[in-house]
Amino acid sequence: MRANLRLALLIGALCPAIVAAQTAAPAAHPPLLNTRPGWEVGGQIAYYKYEEPGIMKLSGNRAGAAGIFTFANAQHVFWRVDMRLSHGLLYYESQGTGTQNDVPDWLTEARFVAGRDFSIGQNVVLAPYGGIGYRYLYNDLRGVSSTGALGYRRYSRYLYLPLGITARFGIGRGWVFAPNLELDVFLQGKQRSQLADTGIAGLMNATNTQNSGRGYRWSLMFENGLWSFGPWLHYWKVRESDIVPIGNGLFSQEPKNTTREAGLEVRYRF
After folding, report:
1. Which of 11, 60, 113, 229 could serve as a FRET partner for 38 with CA atoms 20 to 30 Å apart?
2. Which one, of 154, 138, 151, 133, lies nearest residue 215 by Cα?
3. Is 200 inside any structural domain?
4. Spatial separation of the C-alpha atoms in residues 69 and 82, rounded to whole Å
5. What CATH code is carried by the domain that includes residue 85?
């Protein structure tokens, strides 16, 4: 029911903009401030921290790449597909199993959003949007920690609804300041833990389902000509998962956790 309500709110948010775009004459928008169509590619660096409070932390620097395609029509309706891939060698620390260096960690996101530009005076355009997003993360803790504990591989998948708004301000000499604020409505998470990697007899792999959480993100982009750059922040807070058996009379649950990722991105348009 909660997921259906969220979907209804999303549809309700998008419909007025789409109807207005189809029935009203195009407004006079400053061309420089419109959502820009075309391809963008870019690179990013970031600091990442995943934490299960009181249990463990996984943190370190990341680097990655991003690709974006945007379509926009004469009625100022747009849709956008964006993807990013990020990699880091992270530091693991746990009260129970010690520490481990250089943990391989890969993160991929794919998103589709649609929205519309609204001109506010001569120097501001607001662009609300909504859509669907998918986040996939893989890390490899196989090996021996500082206390001799054996690690395992972990796969994480999130499905969510991004709801956000971008404001585009003309600040002179061809420069545009484009801050963005977004709420990510969590639909479902799947966590697969390859517990058989530990080599413990009778221990089975676990797949846990998470149904409650939320995310936020913001960015402060500056654009001039074909280039854009700026800082960004992603945040997730996800509640506990269900509980599943893993053999030997044991059970597995993903604990509540938070993820913080802050970085800098540079893009080129062509």
Report:
1. 11
2. 133
3. yes
4. 6
5. 2.40.128.100
Q: Per the structure block, which two tokens stand in for 93? A: 């620390």
The whole-model pTM stands at 0.88
The alpha carbon dihedral of 34, 40, 46, 49 has a sign of positive
Tell me how far the alpha carbon of residue 257 is from its chain's centroid: 15
What residue has token string 């990510």?
184
Determine the Cα–Cα distance for residues 106 and 25; give it in Å rounded to an integer: 46
Query: DSSP characters for 211-254?
Result: --EEEEEEEEEEEETTEEEEEEEEEEEE----EEEEETTEEEEP
154, 105 contact by CB (below 8 A): no
Give the three-class secondary structure for 21: helix
Over residues 54-83, the pLDDT tens digits come to 999 999 999 999 999 999 999 999 999 999
Cα–Cα distance, 28 to 6 (Å, whole number): 33
Residue 109 lies in a domain: yes
Domain around 64: 2-23+41-269
Q: What pLDDT, on a 0 to 100 scale, did the predictor assign at position 66?
A: 98
Q: Which residue has the tokens 């998008």?
A: 14
Question: What pLDDT sits at residue 9?
Answer: 53
The structural domain count of the chain equals 1
